[in-house]
Recover the amino acids of this structure.
């Protein structure tokens, strides 16, 4: 599609700051979200949840709940012979015999009102035999660890991409092999090995998960749900419930934020089973905020060990990377996070010899799923802190060290893909981020501030990259239908979850049709019975795939219009041109026919009709991608790479470890800006979400595996008071050759690498070596005292918060090794 | 059950409610006014912010009984005669809306702030909306929208995407 890629400024709609197309409904309260819907006869559901992380269910007595007036259905796991799973089919709809995490659903009720359902849930008696949970992923891969899934060998899974290890807690292993890592380490003058960690984190969409399902007679099922991916909900639902797709309709109205947490399938099967048992009444279940933290999934925790061989001139010769992903109780997306992180694990650097071994590990904790960045926020914390520390060890400025090793045209990625000048420009992103914060020196004002306050200013950098994690054959489609007044309606199944896809697609359609955007309507609700197929709304792939499909649909519609107009105007289609109102003969513009006259079939004055409704169809499938070899990881998984960099200025009090993030400058190579206000909105929003991850968010468990902070009181997210004073976002435009108007996605990327940029700035200011994210003031203080970092994410404290202080300290300490001494990474069995 | 009388966005309602109902539940389930959202049910996220007798409250914490005889303003009362209010228009212009779930409560808090302080500084704006979580926007464009509607948005305060 190279004709789309030429970046010129001829466009009139693409590149302009259009208002969001669906904004009025959201501003007035008129926009309907799933939780706002009221269906005739609708019942309300509540869930009975496990208070234990690991236990055997000895007995469930639902008789009192069933006897409560107003209760229509009570369900337990043994009634449900269905198992769910995106890639490894490992999850029952309700726990059977055992519970595997705190907050897991063991029973559910549908009743006339919320209040009755709540009372009924309280009346359900569950007797447990509590077992010792396995909470630490590094312990879970030990030889004598109890198994979270003793039946792992009997589960079905996607064999082309995943590799579960029966008899262990390992849900998946991914291996990448590039070059000769032994030779690379032999060529190194320095070998530096360290380990970096981060806890699980909650997405916190403001709208919690909600589903309404009606399972009618004849197994006709309608699902209204707050999902990112209606077709994936339908697909997984039909697979699990063994229903033909034509029996199931998934409708998604406005969605109140997703961030990956609403990809896949969640509450829908349980609510469907309640509706069936309640005789086909529609049933509604909306997660409470507490349930959002523990019944619904989170982001996986990660322990990332990196060993880098480097020469004194700063050239990386080899890198060995080991990722230990804490999946929690179910594999869900975590196995694919592991895969996607593996082929990105080295960052935007040219590493000639590399090994990645990545493990997805079951533990007795709430399970991990997709979260904005799909693993990259987590591993870039380690990777970009590591690059800083490697530079420090060899005595080179971190910017110079990074720049020396950045990918450039001709470089190959870990999977063997050759980078070209069109892939994007990580070098420019990093250089601009450095320039924006005045990297490498303090201004006179900053020096004066240091003198007057005793505080320290630090300036840090971090790079980032990400490609969409998706099947190699991922496809999207768009239908553009002309109304009889010559305006158009655009249908596609990419879901507007706040990221602005409806507006971007409207602008692309308007641009391609050469219509004003006012003549382009994008449907808000998605309905699998009406919209054309899309795989999912994930991975920052929507702009390229749906954008290209939209261009093709517009071309199809124009061609249909031209064909009829050619007949009416007695011309060849090649003689025709058009504007927003009409199709006309190029050399005789007065000979024309309006789009309105063509739109639903042209009628001659005598009444004869020709043509018919103008409906353009566009289908686009990712081009040239391939599966990864299971032994070497070699292949072509990347639709595109979006590169970026953050520059951060911090102001640290070295006596206490307290610090402020004063300035962040973020630069991304987006290929082509479709809408600057929306691109900036993604950059700002992602950056602040990254700030939350960097500074305070994370799950804290007690030693029994109970989640201690499932609320906003104890699990803070950034407020308006927490954002830096100075935030700058900038775009590089290196056209993506197969992107719509040269564009590539940037939805997830702003969240990646915010944390290491802050960590690096703190290190520049004070020398503090931070290995764990989030970075709390006491972490900085402890690092400055050369005290061991605290791992207090599994804690003895009775009440948890980000500021909890009790140490347990059982993770291996990081080491700096200078060649020729070597330490081998522990080998897993 | 309890019989209450309230004025919502200028309309008077007489309604049977359960004693334990919150104001939020009354608005959504009792009156079908779903523009006000529940984000946490614990008074921490601000998505349910409405005016009760001239002051903003988290309607998930206020009991509907407290509102008896009172006057309530919700997001549904913000636009007049089918036309966006100045605050709403500024939100639209400045990309201060993404998923929209926090927007209603956010606008209520901005209205409250501007009634008390017609030209708030940036720190005052941030303080004024700190009780309203937004997970999408990172707040910056909301702050710019408030500067805009209060006539303070100029070249120095207007953030823009820079091209490099």
């Amino acid at each position: 599609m190279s004709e789309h890629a030429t970046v010129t400024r001829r466009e009139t709609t693409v590149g302009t700051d259009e208002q969001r197309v669906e904004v009025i409904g959201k501003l007035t309260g008129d926009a309907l979200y799933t939780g706002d819907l009221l269906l005739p006869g609708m019942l309300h559901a509540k869930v009975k949840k496990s208070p234990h992380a690991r236990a055997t269910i000895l007995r469930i007595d639902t008789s009192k709940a069933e006897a409560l007036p107003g209760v229509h259905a009570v369900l337990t796991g043994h009634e449900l012979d269905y198992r769910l799973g995106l890639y490894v089919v490992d999850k029952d709809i309700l726990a059977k015999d055992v519970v595997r995490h705190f907050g897991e659903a063991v029973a559910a009720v549908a009743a006339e009102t919320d209040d009755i359902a709540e009372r009924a849930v309280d009346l359900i008696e569950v007797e447990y035999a509590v077992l010792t949970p396995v909470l630490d992923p590094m312990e879970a891969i030990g030889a004598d660890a109890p198994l979270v899934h003793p039946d792992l060998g009997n589960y079905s899974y996607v064999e082309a991409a995943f590799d579960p290890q029966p008899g262990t807690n390992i849900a998946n292993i991914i291996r990448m092999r590039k070059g000769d890592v032994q030779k690379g380490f032999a060529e190194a003058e320095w070998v530096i090995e360290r380990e970096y960690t981060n806890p699980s984190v909650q997405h916190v969409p403001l709208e919690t998960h909600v589903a309404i399902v009606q399972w009618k007679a004849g197994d006709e099922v309608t699902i209204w749900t707050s999902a990112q991916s209606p077709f994936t909900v339908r697909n997984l639902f039909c697979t699990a419930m063994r229903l033909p797709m034509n029996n199931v309709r998934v409708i998604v109205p406005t969605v109140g934020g997703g961030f990956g947490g609403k990809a896949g399938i969640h509450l829908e099967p349980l609510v469907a089973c309640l509706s069936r048992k309640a005789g086909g009444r529609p049933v509604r279940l909306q997660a409470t905020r507490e349930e959002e933290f523990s019944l619904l999934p989170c982001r996986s925790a990660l322990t990332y060990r990196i060993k880098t061989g480097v020469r004194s001139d700063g050239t990386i010769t080899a890198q060995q990377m080991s990722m230990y992903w804490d999946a929690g109780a179910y594999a869900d997306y975590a196995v694919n996070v592991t895969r996607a992180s593996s082929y990105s694990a080295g960052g935007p650097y040219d590493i000639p010899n590399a090994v990645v071994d990545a493990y997805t590990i079951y533990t007795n904790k709430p399970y991990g799923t997709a979260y904005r960045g799909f693993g990259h926020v987590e591993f870039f914390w380690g990777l970009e802190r590591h690059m800083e520390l490697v530079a420090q060890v060899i005595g080179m400025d971190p910017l110079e060290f990074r720049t020396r090793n950045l990918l450039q045209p001709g470089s190959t990625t870990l999977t063997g893909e050759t980078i070209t000048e069109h892939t994007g420009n990580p070098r420019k992103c990093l250089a601009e981020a450095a320039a924006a914060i005045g990297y490498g020196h303090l201004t006179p004002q900053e020096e004066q501030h240091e003198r007057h306050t005793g505080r320290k200013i630090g300036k840090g950098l971090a790079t980032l990259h990400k490609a969409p994690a998706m099947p190699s054959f991922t496809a999207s489609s768009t239908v553009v239908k002309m109304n009889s007044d010559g305006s158009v309606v655009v249908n596609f199944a990419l879901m507007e979850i706040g990221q602005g896809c409806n507006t971007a697609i409207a602008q692309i359609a308007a641009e391609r049709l050469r219509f004003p955007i006012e003549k382009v309507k994008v449907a808000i609700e998605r309905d699998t019975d009406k919209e054309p197929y899309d795989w999912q709304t994930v991975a920052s792939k929507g702009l390229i795939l749906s954008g290209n499909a939209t261009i093709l649909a517009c071309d199809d519609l124009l061609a249909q219009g031209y064909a009829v107009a050619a007949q009416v105007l007695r011309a060849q289609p090649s003689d025709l041109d058009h504007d927003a109102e009409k199709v006309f003969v190029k050399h005789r513009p007065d000979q024309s026919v309006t789009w309105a006259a063509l739109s639903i079939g042209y009628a001659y004055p005598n009444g004869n009709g020709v043509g018919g409704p103008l409906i353009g169809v566009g289908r686009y499938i990712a081009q040239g991608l391939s599966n990864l070899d299971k032994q070497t990881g070699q292949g072509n998984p990347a639709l595109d790479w979006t590169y970026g960099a953050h520059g951060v200025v911090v102001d640290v009090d070295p006596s206490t470890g307290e610090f402020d993030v004063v300035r962040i400058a973020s630069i991304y190579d987006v290929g082509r800006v479709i809408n600057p206000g929306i691109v900036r909105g993604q950059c700002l929003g992602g950056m602040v979400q990254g700030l939350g991850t960097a500074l305070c968010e994370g799950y804290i468990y007690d030693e029994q595996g109970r989640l201690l902070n499932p609320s906003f009181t104890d699990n803070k997210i950034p407020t308006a008071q927490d954002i830096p004073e100075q935030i700058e976002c900038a775009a590089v435009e290196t056209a993506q050759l197969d992107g719509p108007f040269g564009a590539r996605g940037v939805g997830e990327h702003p969240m990646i690498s915010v944390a290491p940029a802050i960590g690096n700035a703190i290190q520049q200011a004070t020398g503090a070596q931070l290995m764990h994210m989030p970075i709390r003031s006491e972490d900085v203080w402890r690092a400055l005292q050369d005290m061991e970092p605290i791992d207090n994410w599994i804690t003895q404290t009775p009440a948890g918060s980000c500021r909890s202080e009790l140490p347990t300290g059982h993770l291996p300490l990081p080491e700096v090794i200078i060649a020729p001494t070597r330490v081998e990474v522990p080998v897993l069995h | 059950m309890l019989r209450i009388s309230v004025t919502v966005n200028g309309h008077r309602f007489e309604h049977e409610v359960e004693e334990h109902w919150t104001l939020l539940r009354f608005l959504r389930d009792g009156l079908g006014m779903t523009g006000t959202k529940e984000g946490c049910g614990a008074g921490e996220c601000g998505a349910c912010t409405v005016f009760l007798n001239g002051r903003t409250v988290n309607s998930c914490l206020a009991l509907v009984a407290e509102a008896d005889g009172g006057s309530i303003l919700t997001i549904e009362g913000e636009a007049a005669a089918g036309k966006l209010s100045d605050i709403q228009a500024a939100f639209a212009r400045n990309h201060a809306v993404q998923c929209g779930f926090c927007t209603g409560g956010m606008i209520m808090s901005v209205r409250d702030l501007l009634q008390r302080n017609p030209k708030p500084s940036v720190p005052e704006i941030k303080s004024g909306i700190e009780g309203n979580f937004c997970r999408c926007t990172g707040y910056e464009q909301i702050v710019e929208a408030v500067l805009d509607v209060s006539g303070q948005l100029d070249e120095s305060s207007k953030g823009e995407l820079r091209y490099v």
Notes: Chain A touches chain B through 69 residues (CB under 8 Å). Residues 542-569 of chain A form the longest helix (28 residues).
